[in-house]
Amino acid sequence: MHTTLYPLSAAIRAAAAVGGSKETAGPLGAAILADPQNDDRFGTPTWEQAEAELQRRALNAALTRADFSPDDLDLILGGDLLNQCTASAYGLLEFAVPYLGLYGACSTCAEGLFLAAMATSGHAEAAAVVTSSHYAAAERQYRFPLEYGGQRPPTAQWTVTGSGAFIVTPAKAAPAGAPRIVDAMPGRVVEMGVTDANNMGAAMAPAAIDTLTRYFTATHTTAADYDLILTGDLGREGSALLCELMEAESLPIADRHRDCGLLIYDCRADDRHAGGSGCGCSAVVLAAHILPRLERGDLRNILFLATGAMMSPDSVKQGLAIPAIAHLIHLRGGNTK
Amino acid sequence: MHTTLYPLSAAIRAAAAVGGSKETAGPLGAAILADPQNDDRFGTPTWEQAEAELQRRALNAALTRADFSPDDLDLILGGDLLNQCTASAYGLLEFAVPYLGLYGACSTCAEGLFLAAMATSGHAEAAAVVTSSHYAAAERQYRFPLEYGGQRPPTAQWTVTGSGAFIVTPAKAAPAGAPRIVDAMPGRVVEMGVTDANNMGAAMAPAAIDTLTRYFTATHTTAADYDLILTGDLGREGSALLCELMEAESLPIADRHRDCGLLIYDCRADDRHAGGSGCGCSAVVLAAHILPRLERGDLRNILFLATGAMMSPDSVKQGLAIPAIAHLIHLRGGNTK
Fold it and tell me: Are A310 and B85 inside 8 Å of each other by CB?
């Protein structure tokens, strides 16, 4: 059943999150770098270029925190939601570092951390991971231009305007307090017949269950062994499904489970419907909120499970169900045994 | 200048290429698996699903040649040209193997081989790489639906309908004759101001030059040390630029250089303009034509440099220049020292 576990020996030396106006006004806003103009344009003429600029700023901030220059990086792994991953291609151009483009929809942050940890557990000295999404760019690509004013159903999620960047090094080269990536389990593509692109949580929950049950089998652990099981962007619908179905498998997780899509906004107050989503969602929450808690020792041992819905507007129009994926990264506080 | 070289110890245990009607009628057609109906639909109702089916068939064929079942694979690395990489997500769904989606435009085959070789040089027992493109799906996504009958300029390339799949294992676990991946150098994103989406060769040639010169510097070698320097899909325009500019750098390669985009079609006879392109182009030529020559000993020591133009239709309409990339894989015949 594909329970291969990848033992890794990498650390996240530094991270940074940049976000839009709604993200910096949310519950985690104090830890997210804002656009001074606060108009979600980040000084660019288009939403797409704004997303590229988010990536550029996030990586620059992470490099500064790591006390690194671009020349210290052997690799950048980048991805986003735009067609042909153009936010990454344009946003990361100026760094002139060897670049690997990734596409895992909203799971890309964990896919990048897995590959960066593998690269630095034996092959590279330092790798950066950068992912992003932008609400306005995603709306016009996947749904309608904002000007159209389309109505969104309650199960719809809100694409996070934001980018998270991470500097990954071998564990032995990192400061003692830097969070460790100790192992990982990449996800399989799972498609359970969900065709409603306004309910991506339902499409992604089975992928999260697939990865999490394989992981518990491989490691002989249960939710009780972890302080936190953090999913990427299942939102309210998908999170409820995940907890209910894991309970049905006699692997209850509800008391340890949180979802990045529900942490980034005060969803009921802010009209964000079922929560946040997008390649930027889990990246921003991990960089701004979770890694600092691992550094402080508030959290010691967590599973980060970024989820992705890998349909395109064309595949939805052609009537296909939504393929989804969830990649798992096991993180420990640097000062934790 | 980022001359980090990745020493690797992986082998390509088996490979397979599937192609459309024009590819199987081309100079390499005898080694490319065809659609029995020969209508480029591969038994599906849409061009997009046909591309997914290309990937499914290519991976099945490669698994059969490797005498592997999907359960023998630890990872699949897949990518294509469709928005949100849906050919890979749908085409590789049934294998139920942990999946990492990649986007490097037409460079994706080499990006996948690099990551698969890294994974199997220490972390995994076997990984598959699958990439594809489909002429009709790419035309309507990037340019015009075929029914429109748009005129193509002479510098335009023809998107290959095809998929190549590769089974990568640690070198020590592979049969003696299997071609070896001995090292690799991932590419940097390079953008030299080319805005003409009908001349991707010109946009990609500088990326190929960047990677190749960094590689020659890191290895203290020149073209004379290799039997073949194979680029992915620079086509006629890009190949001429590459050879001319390498000559100007006093690193001549013309007598060793070939391009997959010029090998797959008899371009002048077939009206394929400047040659083939697409994620399927270099994958099909490598799987169908080059790896068998490495196995037979016709070739012993080659550089495979897949190139990609990472614009999207939106970035072109918004007036941005084309960012490009080239990833290098160094291959040796299995029986070669």
Answer: yes
Q: How far apart are CA A59 and CA B139, in angstroms?
A: 34
Question: What's the pLDDT at B12?
Answer: 96
Which residues of chain B make contact with A83, given a CB cutoff of 8 A?
Answer: 83-84, 312-314
Q: Could you tell me if B84 and B303 are in contact, meaning their C-beta atoms sit under 8 angstroms apart?
A: no
Alpha-carbon distance of B337 to B335, in angstroms, equals 7
Of residues A84, A115, A318, nearest to B115 (C-beta): A115
In order along its 337 residues, chain B shows pLDDT tens digits of 677 889 999 999 999 999 999 999 999 999 999 998 889 999 999 999 999 999 999 999 999 999 999 999 999 999 999 999 999 999 999 999 999 999 999 999 999 999 999 999 988 999 999 999 999 999 999 988 899 988 888 888 999 999 999 999 999 999 999 999 999 999 999 999 999 988 999 999 999 999 999 999 999 999 999 999 999 999 999 999 999 999 999 999 999 999 999 999 987 777 777 899 999 999 999 999 999 999 999 999 999 999 999 999 999 999 999 999 999 999 999 776 5
Cβ atoms of B113 and B329 within 8 Å: the answer is: yes
Chain B residues with CB-CB distance to A323 below 8 A: 86, 89-90, 93
Q: Measuring CA to CA, which residue among B302, B156, B154, B170 is closest to residue B228?
A: B302
The two three-digit tokens of residue A76, written as one number: 């950048």
The alpha-helical segments, DSSP class H, found in B67-199 are 86-91, 108-120, 135-142
Go through chain A and tell me how many residues it has.
337
CA distance B319 to B330: 36
Q: Which two tokens stand for residue A323?
A: 């393929």
Do the chains contact at A4 and B111, CB–CB below 8 Å? Answer: no
Judge: A101–B89 Cβ closer than 8 Å, yes or no: no
Q: How many CA atoms lie within 13 A of B216 on its CB side?
A: 17
Contact call for A189 and B99, based on CB within 8 A: yes
B181–chain A nearest CA distance, Å: 15
Do residues B60 and B91 lie in contact, with contact meaning Cβ atoms separated by under 8 Å? no
CB contact under 8 A, B89 and A323: yes
The predicted pLDDT at position B1 comes to: 64
Identity of the amino acid at A158: W
C-alpha atoms less than 13 angstroms from C-alpha of A27 in its C-beta half-sphere: 16
Among A119, A135, A130, which Cα is nearest to A41's? A135
Helices (H) and strands (E) in chain A, counts: 12, 12
Helices (H) and strands (E) in chain B, counts: 12, 12
Q: Are A23 and A71 in contact (CB under 8 A)?
A: no
Q: What is the DSSP letter of A321?
A: P
Burial of A337 (0-12, 13-18, 19+ CB in 10 A): exposed
For the four alpha carbons of A15, A21, A27 and A30, in that order, the dihedral sign comes to positive
The overall longest dimension of chain B from CA atoms, in Å, is 53
B69 touches chain A (CB under 8 A): no
Q: A240, A228, A124, A236: which is closest to A173 by C-alpha?
A: A124
Confidence at residue B336, expressed as pLDDT on a 0 to 100 scale = 62
Cα atoms in the 13 Å half-sphere on the side-chain side of A8: 33
Q: Please, is B269 exposed, middle or buried when counting C-beta atoms within 10 Å of its C-beta (0-12, 13-18, 19+)? A: exposed
CB of B51 within 8 Å of any CB in chain A?
no
Residue numbers in chain A where pLDDT is lower than 50: none
pLDDT of residue A273: 79
Inform me whether the C-beta atom of residue B290 falls under 8 Å from chain A C-beta atoms. Answer: no
